[in-house]
């Protein structure tokens, strides 16, 4: 297996606080990787460095052979759900995804509607996203992350806000996305997510990453 993501000596400072303390780790392609840790441990900051959303203080992140911030600003093929998904509240879920899809023009409205159905939402609903429940927003966030079939998928708390049935459906969806060409990183407080889904597990604690399995 090739290494999809390579992190070397990654340091991230916010003023006087060192949030990431020289992380060294590789994530193999074709696997689902879990990252556990308390709030404030640095998981989300590491994910944002991988995505190119933050420029690290030191070290490097290389995704599919390209160093982020030097060879490219953002990974070429990535889907992300980090923190609360941001959508235009006045538009429907379908319209929101249609607007996002218009940037790359990789998929058409029929494919977008199918993805919305896949995550358990109704693409014909005209309800504005501003009136969605937390669980519905989470489902739509997952839809936007996966809709363009990215090779790298980063899911920060993917089952947040979902009821028991929703959690089961999203776990099944994530398992169905698994393939030899795709690398999935998941952060979750729900250890059942990690135990059921992940091939490898790391723990982030106070900005340091250690391998659990």
Describe this structure in words.
This protein has 213 residues and is of the alpha/beta class. 31% of the residues lie in helices and 29% in strands. The chain contains six helices and ten strands; from the N terminus they run βββαβββαααβαβαββ. A six-stranded mixed β-sheet has the order 6-7-8-3-9-10, sandwiched between helices. A hairpin with a 2-residue loop joins strand 9 and strand 10. Helix 2 crosses helix 3 and helix 3 crosses helix 4. The chain starts with a strand and ends with a strand.
**First-last Cα distance:** 17 Å
Report low-confidence residues grouped into runs of 5 or more: none
Largest sheet: number of strands, sense, barrel closure: 6 strands, mixed
Please state the CA-atom Rg, rounded to the nearest Å: 17 Å
What is the helix content?
25-40%
By DSSP (H or I, 4+ residues per run), the number of helices equals: 6
Q: How much β-strand is present in the residues?
A: 25-35%
Task: Write the H/E string, N to C.
Answer: EEEHEEEHHHEHEHEE
Give the strand line-up of the largest sheet: 6-7-8-3-9-10
Gist of the model:
The protein is an alpha/beta fold and 213 residues long. Helix content is 31%, strand content 29%.
Annotation keywords:
213 residues; alpha/beta; four-stranded antiparallel β-sheet; 31% helix; 29% strand
Any chance you could write out the topology, listing elements then pairs?
Layout: E1 3-14, E2 17-28, E3 32-36, H1 43-51, E4 58-63, E5 66-67, E6 78-81, H2 93-104, H3 109-118, H4 134-146, E7 152-156, H5 164-177, E8 183-187, H6 191-197, E9 200-205, E10 208-211
Parallel strand pairs: 3-8, 3-9, 6-7, 7-8
Antiparallel strand pairs: 1-2, 1-4, 4-5, 9-10
């Amino acid at each position: 297996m090739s290494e999809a993501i390579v992190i070397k000596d990654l340091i991230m400072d916010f003023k006087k606080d060192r949030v990431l303390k020289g992380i060294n780790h590789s994530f193999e392609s074709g696997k689902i990787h879990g990252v556990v840790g308390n709030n404030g441990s640095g998981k989300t900051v590491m994910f944002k460095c991988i995505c190119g959303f933050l420029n690290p203080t030191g070290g490097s992140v290389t995704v599919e052979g390209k160093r982020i911030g030097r060879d490219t600003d953002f990974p070429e093929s990535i889907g992300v759900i980090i923190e609360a998904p941001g959508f235009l509240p006045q538009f429907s879920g379908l319209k929101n995804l249609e607007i996002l899809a218009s940037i790359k023009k990789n998929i058409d409205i029929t494919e977008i509607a199918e993805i919305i159905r896949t995550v358990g939402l109704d693409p014909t609903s005209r309800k504005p996203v501003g009136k969605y429940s937390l669980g519905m927003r989470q489902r739509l966030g997952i839809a936007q992350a996966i809709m363009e079939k990215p090779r790298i998928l980063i899911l920060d708390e993917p089952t947040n806000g979902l009821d028991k049935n929703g959690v089961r459906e999203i776990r099944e969806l994530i398992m169905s996305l698994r393939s030899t060409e795709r690398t999935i990183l998941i952060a979750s407080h729900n250890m059942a997510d990690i135990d059921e889904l992940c091939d490898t597990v790391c723990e982030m604690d106070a900005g340091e990453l250690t391998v659990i399995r």
